[in-house]
Design a protein that fits this description.
The chain is α+β, with helices and mostly antiparallel strands. The protein is built from two helices and eleven strands, in the order αββββββαβββββ. The protein has two domains: 30 residues; 149 residues, Sandwich (Immunoglobulin-like), CATH 2.60.40. The strands form two sheets. Strands 3, 4, 5, 7, 8, 9 and 11 form a seven-stranded antiparallel sheet that branches. The termini are far apart. It is a single-pass membrane protein. InterPro entries: LEA_2, NDR1-like.
Amino acid sequence: MANPEPRPRHSTLLRGIAITLLALIVLVGLAVLITWLVVRPKRIEYIVEDGSIHNFNLTNNHLNATFNFAIRSYNPNSRVSIYYDSIEASVQYEDQTLAFNVVDPFFQPHGNVTRLDVKLTAQYVPLSGSKSKDISHERSSGGIEIIVLLKARIRFRVGAWKSKDRSLIIWCPHVLVRYSRSNNFARTYCDTEL
């Protein structure tokens, strides 16, 4: 009967390293799965609930106006709170920014609804001839369809743990804003990208 050849020592070492790495990957995967099952993260909801334009003046293809918005932020999570460290808000018409402003940072606890009152001012913003005509035409109908865009730096908090900061983009298309306060403002639901 022939004696089996002894295995080289380096193949036993490689096998041990491979088994250890595989076990580590499985443990990390289980930890992520358990954390997700406990936290059950849900998407934050944003809605433009009210909006109006004041002090509108379009002269020589330059726009002056004040845009006012009430934006509702709902955090449906039962364990995840959110730090909004910085928020930049803008109003766009087609592909041009009409107004820009910064919103104060805030903390949103879990299960909370926060109302943001955002005021953006356009001061002598130059418009191309075609955009100026389009806005004038839409004004004659009593309102203008714009995009409200918010860019935020946020951090999540679960218990005592805080995440690193992330970029959140809140995009609210097809917001029809009237030139004065109106009771028939159509709510606009926003899309988010994290």
